[in-house]
C-alpha cells in the first residue's frame, strides 16, 4: 500500500524538535494536520495553514472566503476538509505548516520517500527527538522561558510551570505513547494479509520492527533512568508482594498505566527503595505472578498494565486516546496503596449524605444496605465510558422518591457524588478537582477575531498584523 515518509521539523527551536512519520496515501489535509497534532503537544485549539509554492491550504474560513475574491499572497487558498494530499506529495517536496496565528509556530515538512509496502490504515511515528511545545506557551521565546522554569526545581516559577504544563497536557517525548495515539488517526483499511501477526498482534513489520516476546521488553524501558552501579549495591531490593500490590493499586486507580509511567510513579513513592527494570521484568516473566494479577482483574501486556474492564483492543485504544495527555492524580503512598483493594472507594460527605437519604426513604433505616447501593453506583461511575445521564436514570428507576420535591434533593446529591468521584477518565482526579484547576485558565482565555484589534497593541486589525 502506498505511503509517504515525511520529516517534520520545528523551525527556530534549539535543541531541534523533529518527527519522522509514515502516512498512508489517501489522507486529506485535515488528516495530515491531525497527525502533526498527535505527534506534538498541540491540542488542535487554533487555526492552521499549509503553504506550498503555488497553494495555501487552511481551516481559516474567513481567509478562504476572502481568497475567492482576491488571492492571498498571490496564491489560491483551499479548505483542507476534502482536499487530499496525494497530488502534492513528491520526493523532495518541501512545504510549511503554520499553527496558531498568535504563537506562530512554523514547521517545515519534507517528503523524504514514497513507499509501496506500508500496510496499516493509520500513520506511524518512525523516529523523533525533542519535546514539542505546549499550546499557548508564548511562541519560541515563551517556550524557552517555560523550559527553564519547568526543568529547574530551584526556579521561583517551577511549581507554577509544572501545574500549568499539566493543564495544557504538556508531555515529554514518548514514542510508544504517540504511536498508540496514532492508531486512532485511522482512514484506511489495514491489510493484515501482508503483515506477520498472531491474532492481529504484529510480530514483524519493516516500519514497526519485531514484536518483543517478553512481557516487559528492555528496549521499551531503556529511557527509565537507573541508579549508578555503586548506588545499586546499597539500595534495598523490592519485595515481590509489594510490587504486585503496587501494580494492582495503579490499575484500580487509573484503569490503564504504561510500564514507563508505573516505574516513574513507583520511584516517586520509594525514595530509598528502587524497583529496577530487570526486577520488574523478572517478576512479570513468572507465570504465577501474571496469573495472580489476572485473578485481581489486571492484564499484563508488553508495556502496559490494563484493568480487565478495558481488555478489548478497541476499548484500550479509545481510552488511551482520551487520556493520553492527561496528568496523573498521585496521592501519598498510604492512600495510593488502599487502591490495591479493588473494593476500596475514597469516602466523601456526599456519599454519606446519599446513604442516609436512601436508608431513610427506601431501606427502613438500614444504612449498611444503603451504603452498599451507593458503592455500586460509585464503582459504575468510576469505570470506562461512564455516562452521567444513564447513571441518574438507572438510579431513579430503582429509587423513585414518593414525593416530587424529594426528586430535586436526589438529583443534587447524586451530582455531588459524581463530581467528587475519582475517575479513570481523569487519571484519578475528580471532576471537581479538574474544574478547580482549570477555572483560572478558562477565565483568561480569549479568542481574537480577524477583524478585532490586534492584541499586540499595534492599533491595527488582527488580520492586518499578527493574523497575517
Would you tell me which CATH topology of the largest domain applies? Structural Genomics Hypothetical 15.5 Kd Protein In mrcA-pckA Intergenic Region, Chain A
Mean pLDDT, to the nearest integer, reads 81
CATH architecture of the largest domain: Roll
Please state how the strands of the largest beta sheet are arranged side by side: 5-4-3-6-7-1-2-8
Q: What string gives the helices and strands in order? A: EEHEEHEEEEHHHEEHHEHHHEEHHHHHHH
CATH class of the largest domain: Alpha Beta
3D architecture notes:
- By secondary structure, the chain is an alpha+beta fold.
- Helix content is 40%, strand content 14%.
- The chain has helices spanning 29-39, 61-69, 139-151, 158-167, 175-182, 229-234, 240-254, 259-269, 277-285, 287-295, 313-323, 333-337, 349-361, 367-382, 388-398, 404-419, 431-444, and strands at 3-10, 18-24, 48-51, 56-58, 77-78, 94-99, 105-115, 124-129, 196-198, 201-204, 256-258, 298-300, 304-307.
- α13 (349-361) packs antiparallel against α16.
- The longest helix has 16 residues, at 367-382.
- It folds into three domains: 3-132 and 173-196, MM3350-like (Structural Genomics Hypothetical 15.5 Kd Protein In mrcA-pckA Intergenic Region, Chain A, Roll), CATH 3.10.290; 212-340, no CATH class; 349-421, no CATH class.
- Mean pLDDT is 81; it is low at 211-240 and 440-446.
- The chain is globular, with a radius of gyration of 26 Å.
- β1 and β2 (18-24) form a beta hairpin.
Amino acid at each position: 500500500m502506498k505511503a509517504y515518509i515525511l520529516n517534520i521539523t520545528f523551525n527556530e527551536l534549539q535543541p531541534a524538535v523533529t518527527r519522522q512519520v509514515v502516512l498512508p496515501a489517501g489522507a486529506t489535509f485535515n488528516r495530515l494536520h491531525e497527525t502533526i497534532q498527535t505527534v506534538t503537544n498541540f491540542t488542535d485549539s487554533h487555526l492552521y495553514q499549509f503553504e506550498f509554492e503555488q497553494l495555501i491550504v487552511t481551516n481559516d474560513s474567513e481567509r478562504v472566503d476572502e481568497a475567492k475574491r482576491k488571492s492571498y499572497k498571490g496564491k489560491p487558498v483551499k479548505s483542507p476538509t476534502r482536499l487530499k494530499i496525494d497530488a502534492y506529495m513528491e520526493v523532495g517536496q518541501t512545504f510549511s505548516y503554520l499553527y496558531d496565528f498568535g504563537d506562530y509556530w512554523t514547521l517545515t515538512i519534507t517528503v523524504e520517500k514514497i513507499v509501496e509496502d506500508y500496510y496499516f490504515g493509520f500513520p506511524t511515528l518512525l523516529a523523533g527527538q525533542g519535546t514539542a511545545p505546549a499550546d499557548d506557551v508564548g511562541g519560541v521565546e515563551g517556550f524557552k522561558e517555560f523550559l527553564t522554569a519547568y526543568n529547574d526545581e530551584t526556579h521561583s516559577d517551577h511549581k507554577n510551570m509544572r501545574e500549568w504544563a499539566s493543564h495544557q497536557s504538556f508531555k515529554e517525548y514518548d514514542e510508544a505513547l504517540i504511536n498508540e495515539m496514532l492508531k486512532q488517526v485511522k482512514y484506511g483499511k489495514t491489510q493484515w494479509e501482508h503483515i506477520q501477526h498472531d491474532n492481529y498482534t504484529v510480530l514483524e513489520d519493516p516500519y514497526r520492527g519485531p514484536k518483543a516476546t517478553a512481557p516487559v521488553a528492555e528496549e521499551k524501558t531503556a529511557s527509565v533512568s537507573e541508579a549508578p552501579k555503586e548506588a545499586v549495591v546499597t539500595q534495598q531490593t523490592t519485595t515481590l508482594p509489594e510490587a504486585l500490590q503496587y501494580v494492582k493499586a495503579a490499575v484500580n486507580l487509573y484503569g490503564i498505566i504504561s510500564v514507563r509511567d508505573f516505574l516513574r510513579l513507583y520511584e516517586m513513592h520509594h525514595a530509598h527503595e528502587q524497583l529496577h527494570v530487570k526486577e520488574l521484568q523478572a517478576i512479570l516473566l513468572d507465570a504465577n505472578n501474571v496469573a495472580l494479577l489476572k485473578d485481581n482483574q489486571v492484564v499484563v501486556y508488553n508495556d502496559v498494565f490494563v484493568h480487565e474492564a478495558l481488555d478489548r483492543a478497541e476499548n484500550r485504544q479509545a481510552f488511551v486516546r482520551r487520556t493520553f495527555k492527561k496528568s496523573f492524580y498521585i496521592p501519598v503512598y498510604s492512600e495510593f496503596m488502599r487502591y490495591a483493594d479493588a473494593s476500596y472507594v475514597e469516602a466523601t460527605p456526599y456519599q454519606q449524605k446519599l446513604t442516609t437519604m436512601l436508608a431513610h426513604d427506601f431501606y427502613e433505616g438500614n444504612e449498611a444496605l444503603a451504603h452498599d447501593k451507593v458503592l455500586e453506583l460509585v464503582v459504575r461511575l468510576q469505570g470506562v465510558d461512564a455516562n452521567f445521564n444513564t447513571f441518574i436514570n438507572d438510579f431513579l428507576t430503582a429509587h423513585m422518591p414518593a414525593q416530587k420535591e424529594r426528586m430535586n434533593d436526589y438529583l443534587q446529591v447524586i451530582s455531588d457524588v459524581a463530581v467528587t468521584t475519582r475517575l479513570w477518565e481523569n487519571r484519578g482526579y475528580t471532576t471537581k478537582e479538574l474544574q478547580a484547576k482549570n477555572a483560572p485558565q478558562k477565565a483568561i482565555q480569549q479568542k481574537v477575531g480577524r477583524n478585532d484589534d490586534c492584541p499586540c497593541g499595534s492599533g491595527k486589525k488582527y488580520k492586518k498584523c499578527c493574523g497575517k
